[in-house]
Each structure stands twice: as C-alpha cells, then as structure tokens.
Amino acid sequence: MQELDALKQRIVEALPGLDCVIGWEPGPSPLTAAPLFMRTPADVDRLVWGPFNAPNTAVYLPAFKGRKVGVVVKGCDSRSVVELIQEKLVRREELVVFAMPCRGVADASKVAGRVGDLGQVSAAARDGATLQVTTPEGMAAMPWDEACADKCLNCQYPNALVSDHFLGDPLAPAQGRDAAADEMGRFEAMAPAERMAWWAQAMDRCIRCYACRNACPMCVCRDHCIAQTRDPHWVSQEDGVREKLMFQAIHALHLAGRCTECGECQRACPVDIPILALRRKLNRVVKDVFDYQAGVDPQAVPPLFTFQVEEAKINERGW
Amino acid sequence: MPVLAGRELRIVGFLCNWCSYGGADTAGVGRFTQPTDLRIIRVPCSGRIDPLFVVKALLGGADGVLVSGCHPRDCHYASGNFYARRRLEVLKGMLPVLGFEPGRFEYTWVSASEGQRWQQVVTRFTEQIHALGPSPARDILAPRRGLASGKGGDSARA
Ligand code: SF4
Ligand code: SF4
Ligand code: SF4
Q1: Can the keyword Iron-sulfur be found in this entry's annotation (chain B) (predicted)?
Q2: What pLDDT does B132 receive?
C-alpha cells in the first residue's frame, strides 16, 4: 500500500523531534490491532492501517501533555484530538498529527455474532464490500456493512479534522444507515418502565471493570474518578444494577457536550452492554438545545463550559 | 410518615439558599398550605447542584426531584444558575432514556419573596408526581434479594 509507505516515511522523518508516535500494530487476534508506540524506525515498520485499527489513539495523549508527540488518527479519532485541544488537555503545538482517509473499522462483536469464538479465527481480511474470516470450519464472508462498527455506516468525518501530514485522497462522508437513530427509535418505542427494566437486565451483566471509562479519550480524571471515592460515596460496593447504572450516569453526564461518539466505551465492554445509547442520547440533546457537536471546531467552547444569559432553546419557564 | 402512609410519595427538593429556600420559608411564614411530600435539601446555589444528585436520588427510589434556584440574573453569585440551567436541561433530556418519565424531574426559579409562587410550584409538582405514582425504580432497581439484602443502607430504607 503506497500511502502507508509514504506515511511511514513521514513518521520516520518526524521521529527525531518527537517523544514517540502513537499508531497501531497487529493485535493478538487477526481481527484486532494493538496500540503501537513508535520510537525507532524499526517500530515504524510494524505500523498497520486498515479495517482493524479500531482503538482510538487519542486516548493516550493527555498523559503526554508537556512532551511533543505524534499520533496517527482515523477521522473519528481526530475528533477526540480536537476535543482535547478545545479543553486544553493537550496543546496543538505539542502534537504532530498523521492521518489517512478511513474506510471504516470492523466491529469484533458483530463478527463474533456471525462466526462464534473469535479465538478460532486464524485470518481476516477486507475485500471491498466483504470481510473474509477464516476459522477451522473454513472461510466465511460477511457483508462489510454487517461487520463494521455502526459509526462507520454513516461516518461524516472519514478524513481527519486536524492533521499535519495527510496521505491519500480525502473520502466523501458515508451515506449509510444511521444505526444510532435506529437504536434510539427502538428505545423510544418502549414505555418508561419497560426501558428501565431493559437497562436493569443489560446492566446486570456489568462486572464493574470500568473498561468503558478507561477506554474513553475524554475521561481524564484518571486516579480521581468520583466512582472510586469513598468520601463522598457516590457508588457503593453493592453489586446491584442501581450502582452500575449510577456509574453509567456518571460517565455519560461527565461526557455531556464532550463525547465525540467514538464508541470506545462500548467496544471496550467485555460483556457487550450497549452503553453507547446513553451517550448518544445526551449528544442528541446537546445538538437540539445548543446546536453543537463535540470535537469539530478547535476554537469552540463546549456548551456546558459556558452559558448565554438568554438561552435560545431552553424554555425553563414552560414548567 | 405512618399517619400518611400510602398517601405520601418521596419527593426531593434541592433549593438554593438565597432565593428558593427563602421563598419556601416565606410561604411557611405566610401560612400557605402546602403538600408535605417534598423533603428539602438546602444548597448554597443552584450552581452547586450536580445533575448526579438528581440521578442518585431517582435511582435510589425518589418518586420525584424538584430543583429550584434564583431567577436568571438574580443569582447571589451572579452566574451559578446560568450554568445550572444548561446542566439541568441536559439532564432532563437524559432521564427518559434510563426509564424515568419526563415529569419526575423539573427545575424552576422562585425568589425569596415569592411565597405564593412557591406554594404553587410545590403543589403543582406534587400533583404531577402523584399522577405518575411511585417510581418504577423502587421495584425494578431494588437490590437483589439474597446476599445483598442483609447489608446496610438499602434494606434499612423504609
Ligand atoms: S467512524 Fe469514520 S473515521 Fe471512524 S473508523 Fe469509522 S469510517 Fe473511520
Ligand atoms: S463516552 Fe464513549 S463514545 Fe463518548 S468519547 Fe468516551 S469512549 Fe468515545
Ligand atoms: S466496560 Fe462494561 S462491564 Fe465494564 S464497567 Fe463498563 S459497562 Fe460494566
């Protein structure tokens, strides 16, 4: 792949001035990529780009604040970078952003739904509109739009929104199905108590590993997460769904107006709880009330960091 | 509670010290009759109200939560209620996804001199909550029986 070679070349050239460059290398299974921290040209050789580069590289950036680093991003990752810049959690001048147009990433859970145990997969490759997966039973082909992450079906930003080195020809926004809207529609069709029961059942599986939090590029409190304080005691050690839902509410509300819908929270969840729905709902509210989308404009102020004396779309006197 | 058992619901009110708490006090001093389901928690400013206070109350089984602060432009700290308004509006949009009927949470503004308005607000909100009835969270999210039931706070909850 010519573009990837050109990208590697640019990274090698930039390395001497950088602490490291964050990208991806092949992961433990053919369906995954793992984060790669490139410090030498030999590291750069291992860089991959393609349908398995799901992890959001931006998640590591706040930890490097104060040092100059490079980062390779997909379009959606770049939104997290923009949001981090907006919130002054990283400095634009300390970043060198490398990007290529993104054609989407696979959703391992969807693939597992089709082929079963992912541990049995020995090879996987995308061939245009299909994903070919090899298992001991032979080769299975899945239509790409049934194998890719929901967000990719109607991706509006396949080309990075910030970049210093962009290789390849920009892609047009995707025109596919809006899976998020479909999911929201299913939610809205339920009666309130039914919805609550649905959450109770889904969250019952939660093991409180907090992977959803740790994978989130905008969760930056690290060791100071209020979910773990004992004073005040926001969530107890009880194992009921109430505590688990409370944690989800904490995460979702702390991301209100900041979440870029990268989907990493849900992707990281080991028990596949559709927790993205909550974030999406909040994003929809933020869009309706403040006409705002997170991580698009580095100069913008996130809506909950500010206010207007006269709010255009809040009708608080309606009650 | 025993006298009114079965008639009262649990409503939590977060009231700012400078306006709405004063307004409720004014209503009391004026001897305006009010429903008594609401338990008031006094906070220094509506800007102090983390939307998570509301979520915590609702998940814990409150049947309704009411937030009341100073009218916009009247905040003792100049801008607390402006920030609160944005946060609470967003919260209002989120609660239904968790399965709470939209009417279980409202926020409004009552000044210290508005005893009459306080009476109306608390009456209307209480009626609204009674129309909705007890929160589904009480049953649906109740801690599982068995091991957990012996532990502390939750089983002690009346
Ligand atoms: S959402 Fe867009 S940029 Fe992100 S992985 Fe999917 S196609 Fe690529
Ligand atoms: S909450 Fe989820 S979707 Fe939103 S930024 Fe964090 S990881 Fe991404
Ligand atoms: S990643 Fe999943 S299981 Fe882990 S805490 Fe989050 S919701 Fe629960």
Answers
A1: yes
A2: 96
B17, B26 Cβ separation under 8 angstroms = no
A positions 261-290 inside 8 Å of B (CB): 277-278, 281-282, 284-286, 288-290
Q: Does the model's pTM come out above 0.80?
A: yes
Q: Residues of A with CB below 8 A from B78's CB? A: none
SS3 assignment, position A141: strand
> How high is the ipTM of this complex?
0.92
Q: Whose CA is nearest to atom 5 of ligand 1?
A: A104
State whether A69 and A120 are in the same domain.
no
* Distance in Å from the first CA to the final CA of chain B: 10
Condensed to tens digits (0 to 9), the pLDDT of residues B113-133 reads: 999 999 999 999 999 999 999
A50 lines ligand 1 (CB under 6 A): no
Per-residue pLDDT of B44-78, as tens digits, reads 999 999 999 999 999 999 999 999 999 998 898 98
Other Cβ atoms within 10 Å of A103 Cβ, number: 18
On whether residue A237 sits in a domain, the answer given is yes
Q: Which atom of ligand 3 is nearest to the CA of A265?
A: 1
Same domain, A124 and A86: no
- Please work out whether the CB of residue A280 comes within 6 Å of at least one atom of ligand 1: no
Rg (CA), chain B: 16
Closest ligand relative to A106 C-alpha: 1
Hey, is the C-beta of B107 within 8 angstroms of any chain A C-beta? yes
